[in-house]
Structures are given as C-alpha cells and as structure tokens.
Amino acid sequence: MSSKQRELYFVFLNFDPEYERLRSDRSKRGAYELDMYLSKKHDELLARTLEPGSYNKTLSLVIVDGFAVEITLDQAKTLRSAMEVRVVEKNQELA
C-alpha cells in the first residue's frame, strides 16, 4: 500500500484543563463553547503540523478530546510526534 494513500485516522490529545473545564458546563452555551473550542484547537493543530490541503478532518469528537482525519501514513507519523498528541490510530474496520 502506498504511503501517499489517504486513510481515516483517529487522533486523541493529551490532558487539557480548558477542555475539562468546558466539558463540565452542561448548559447549551457550555456545549456550544466546547464544540467551538475543540474544532478550533483541532484545526490549528492540523494547520501547524501538516501541509494545507493535504488532509481532510471529518469530525471533532466532543466526548473525548480528539478528531478523525483522512491522512497518509507519513502524515500520521508526523502527527504522532506533536507534543499535544497522545495517540494516532488508523481506523480498523471490523468484519
């Protein structure tokens, strides 16, 4: 398999006190602020780490501080080395 082929990966980030604070606010406004915070945080990480236009973030995960992104194997290795990244895992389809 070519390392240039994009596949879906899940990226989970290290502990973030701001995420925990926002997650504890169960109001509608709190949920909105958490969504906006995570989306911006994840977009900024990708923009800092990878070449623009070379990836496709498909979603931000609110229940955990993470996101799904279509990237190459080489890009996954690059993301793994980012300080704020805890885990990068390729999506595994179950038979």
TrEMBL record:
Q: What is this protein called?
A: Inhibitor I9 domain-containing protein
